[in-house]
Amino acid sequence: MPIKVNLDRVMAERNMSLSELASRIDITLANLSILKTGKAKAVRFSTLEALCRELDCQPADILEFTEK
Q1: Taking the complete model, does pTM exceed 0.85, yes or no?
Q2: Which bin fits 3, alpha (ψ -120 to 50), beta or left (φ > 0)?
């Protein structure tokens, strides 16, 4: 898939664990893990907004388009 998820990099830069972020944005650890590993087929704008708010970043910091 040409969309790469850089959530793990952004979380590492902010020293935030997966469980801490899941708790802060009120999403299950399992669903956040699916998103982090790039296995998600979609992401809600409300989830993306919450991620950006808690990680103090822009959507482009988390999602990247890469041509194959």
Answers
A1: yes
A2: beta
